[in-house]
Design brief:
This protein has about 260 residues and is of the alpha+beta class. The protein folds into two domains: about 1-45 and about 125-263, Cyclophilin; about 50-125, no CATH class. It has ten helices and ten strands. The strands form two sheets. The chain has an eight-stranded antiparallel beta sheet with strand order 3-4-8-6-9-2-1-10. A two-stranded antiparallel sheet has the order 5-7. A hairpin with a 5-residue loop joins strand 1 and strand 2. Helix 2 runs antiparallel to helix 6 (about 100-120).
Length: about 260
């Protein structure tokens, strides 16, 4: 099972991934191979040389467009209102889902905020991702939960987070103890989206896992599962790995998802 991911407006870059041989990746592969090339965003590329100032300029452009289209959405663009716009993204996404220009700007705004947060926290690991639009997904097979890992390897391919909300690992790294319970969404679906990790290898040490457990205790009352229950789905679901050398500089010149092919 192979997946080619094409980057650049004219498919200038091809990344080929070989999927692992198991029932879970077989199901993912079969589902992805039937999806149309409609994705939520084609420009979710993180840490390919962008600065915080670059992202702020992109945010300002998005904000100006939103103010022209929906003035009442922002009121003014002070930090508090922008933070509320980010917090209320799930509700606004539903509200404006039939208004394509506003809908796409809201998604771009949300993605840029996440990118800026990563840079400000010193997270400079390189990755890109995409999610197929209008794929409600299917329930994760039971065996998939035990395959989730918080570790990451250069060139490894993972299933992208398929929900609107925050999964446990994101809560942990954000130290988000104040999140409303209804905005926590543990991964329980398999949907067609890829998370392509091109950063350093990341291995969760025993000390880090202990720290994660201590964090779990602070929000345990908001979670449906106990510690060490596989359905916490900590980390990401690994799907496969790259089959060739990668030139990060070339990818940085073509930060646009064109399409993919399963074969």
């Amino acid at each position: 099972m192979l997946i080619d991911v094409y980057l650049g407006h004219n498919k200038e870059v091809t990344l080929t991934y070989k999927l692992y041989n198991n029932n879970v990746t077989q199901l993912f592969y079969e589902r992805l191979s039937t999806q149309k090339n409609n994705v939520v965003s084609r420009n979710e590329f993180y840490n390919f040389g962008e600065s915080a100032q670059d992202i702020k300029q992109e945010l300002n452009t998005i904000i100006d467009k939103l103010k022209n289209l929906v003035p009442e959405l922002l009121g003014n663009d002070d930090a508090e209102n922008l933070n509320q716009l980010h917090i209320n993204f799930p509700a606004n996404e539903q509200k404006y889902k039939n208004n394509k220009p506003v809908f796409e700007l809201l998604r771009d705004f949300n993605n840029r905020i996440h990118h800026l947060e990563r840079l400000q926290k010193g997270n400079v690991n390189t990755a890109f991702l995409f999610t197929v639009d209008d794929d409600p997904g299917v329930d994760l097979p039971e065996e998939a939960y035990s395959m989730f890992t918080p570790d990451k390897k250069f060139g490894e391919l993972y299933m992208n987070y398929p929900h609107v909300g925050k999964h446990f690992t994101e809560l942990y790294f954000d130290r988000d103890v104040d999140i409303p319970k209804d905005q926590i969404k543990l991964t329980d679906k398999m949907a067609s989206g890829l998370y392509c990790w091109l950063g350093d290898n990341v291995s969760m040490s025993k000390r880090r896992m202990l720290d994660m457990y201590k964090f779990f205790l602070t929000i345990e009352h908001k979670l449906p599962y106990s510690w060490q229950d596989p359905k916490l789905a900590i980390g990401y679901l690994p799907l496969g790995t790259i089959t060739h050398d990668i030139d990060i500089n070339t990818i940085s010149q073509h930060k646009h998802l064109h399409s993919w092919k399963c074969y």
